[in-house]
Amino acid sequence: MLRLVAWGRPALPRIVLGGLTALGASLLALAVPQVLRAVVNGPLLTSGSRTGVVEAAGLVLLLGALEAFLVWCRRALILTPGTNVELAMRRDLFRRLLDLPVEFHDRWSGGQLLSRSMSDLSTVRRWMVFGLVMLCVSATTVVVGVGLMIATAPVLGLVYLAGAVPMVWLGFRFRRDYRVVARRARDQAGDLATTVEESVHGIRVLKAFGRGEDALGDFVRQADALRATEVAKARTQSRVTFALGAIPEAVLAVSLAIGVVLAARGDVSVGALVAFFATAAIVNAPVERLGQLLAMTLDARAATERFVQVIDTVPAVQDPDEPARLSAPPGGGSLVELADVRFAHPGRGRDAGTEILTGIDLRLEPGTTTALVGLTGSGKTTLLQLVPRLYDVTAGAVRVDGVDVRDLTRAELRAAVSVAFEDPILFSASVRENVLMGAPDDLPPEQAEALLQRSLDVARAGFARDLPDGLDTVIGEEGLSLSGGQRQRVALARAIAVRPRVLLLDDPLSALDVTTEAEVTRRLREELAGTTTLVVAHRPSTVALADRVAVLEDGRITAVGAHADLLATHAHYRYVLTALELEDTERAALEAERRDRAAERREDEESEVVEVADETADEKLEVRR
Ligand SMILES: Nc1ncnc2c1ncn2[C@@H]1O[C@H](COP(=O)(O)OP(=O)(O)OP(=O)(O)O)[C@@H](O)[C@H]1O
């Protein structure tokens, strides 16, 4: 937990000051019994002076008012810096998440990262502003209080202190047991968040396949496991809280019996006895609170461990210490070379370390368009992702204009290389923001606007202008308010807006009909005439549009050539094309069938009486649509 100092340092002076004020408040509370002792031993038992009692009462009142003021100071001092620490930690965690490569995100679930950046950090903040301060203050109050008790009535104080032995033992057991369940609860909460995230993300699939009940079953199972862990946590905590409450009370009972005997024998004054028990009453509260504070500390420890686990992950893909620079290629497009490239996903289990690419040699001449063809799962997407370093090669090298991509900063590389994926991810922002995401930041507004319009035109995404707020329409989380083809076209416009030297297209037009695809491809070639393009083709029509075709087979490029030549000479190419044609025909047939069904459904719905069951009121309502 010392790691937290890095983020807590700016807030440290105020936290320490807040702690000191809280300590001051506790010590003031401890001073009250000493006043009582003086009153009992003085005015009450000897002189009987009324003024003495009134003065003592005034002093107690003053001490109380000061204590209240110091408690207020503690809150005022600590609250805001605590939230700033949380903000800084959250910002750094998110920065690290963005910096970590795809390989990290392949392994980590969204829910785990979500819970680490949200609830874990709130737990740390609460501990820092309350738990930590109160733990220090309570411990000091107990030590000072017990010291005072020993000084007031040594025998009774030592009896009270003897109670610490079983409490310390219990404390250690509690620490051991609670740590395990606290961590388990946090991990389970992360898994539960993943389930919610996945189900919400895939809600269409769940509904379409009628799998809502299954998802609910999974969710309830996980939620129940979390509940059981939380109960175990509460049990462990309540056991220690009970012990920390009961042991001092029991010890006090023994002390009272001994104290009465000692007072009767005159070995201890009545005033000292009163002060002893008044101090004990004050000390008992922080002792009892220690259980809760220890639990908070262990919770915060588990949360910190989870935070540090992500923050400390060393990114597998990093910028070099002394980066090389790319010089501007004369024609606008870069030369891309893959030299004996090998790649295996680190992964886990049976497939861990299995090479997907086993020695790729490929040269993309500047300004040319190359189609990459291979069977499903042959590694086309993987190969594409090696160029912008979404993954790093396991062996061999990828070079852009003769420079190894690992010698460039990721920012420079990704400004030169742009990618559009088959499954386009759009962000919950306007069409304008989504498209201009990859454009240079320093572009003047009028140039940015021209780039936006041009990119939309080339990608045939002009439909976006007719959306309710035009290009300022927010297109929903992940762009789900658009159709698949529309999303692909906006994502393609985004890739074009980068004005890249190298454009990598992972079948980004698969959701478009053949005519629109041909139109988009024609515009792309006109617009990005100088750009080096590598396009993963799943359709024979896309292949035909490329200058050259590269065939990916068994992790290697087995042929590069013109479509017609390969068709005549390369058996595997013919085989792949036939498979793609079949897929394409099947896809077209499925699409036509889906359209027919949708039309039929619409007709049916016009005359259909739909019964809507109102489960809560248990009554049925007939609605004519
Ligand atoms: N993140 C990952 N971790 C482990 N293995 C992966 C990962 N992504 C892909 N693979 C495996 O790598 C192989 C190649 O996948 P890739 O997506 O590159 O194929 P592809 O040729 O693009 O397929 P498709 O034509 O279906 O898009 C597959 O066997 C796949 O299971």
UniProtKB/TrEMBL annotation:
Lineage, top-rank taxon, reads Bacteria
Query: Where does the chain cross the membrane?
Result: 53-73, 127-151, 157-174, 242-264, 270-287
| Molecular function via GO | ATP binding
Subcellular location(s) of the protein: Cell membrane
Q: Which PROSITE patterns match?
A: ABC_TM1F, ABC_TRANSPORTER_1, ABC_TRANSPORTER_2
What is this protein's record name? ABC transporter ATP-binding protein/permease
The ABC transmembrane type-1 domain covers 16-299
- UniProt KW Transmembrane keyword: yes
Species, as recorded = Cellulomonas fulva
SMART domains registered for this protein in UniProt: AAA
Q: Where is the composition biased (Acidic residues)?
A: 605-617
Extent of Basic and acidic residues compositional bias: 594-604
Q: What is its main location?
A: membrane
Native organism taxonomy: Bacteria, Bacillati, Actinomycetota, Actinomycetes, Micrococcales
Q: Where is the ABC transporter domain?
A: 336-579
Q: How does it sit in the membrane?
A: Multi-pass membrane protein
Keyword field: ATP-binding, Membrane, Nucleotide-binding, Transmembrane, Transmembrane helix
Q: Where is this region: Disordered?
A: 594-625
Q: Which CDD domains match?
A: ABC_6TM_Rv0194_D1_like (cd18543)
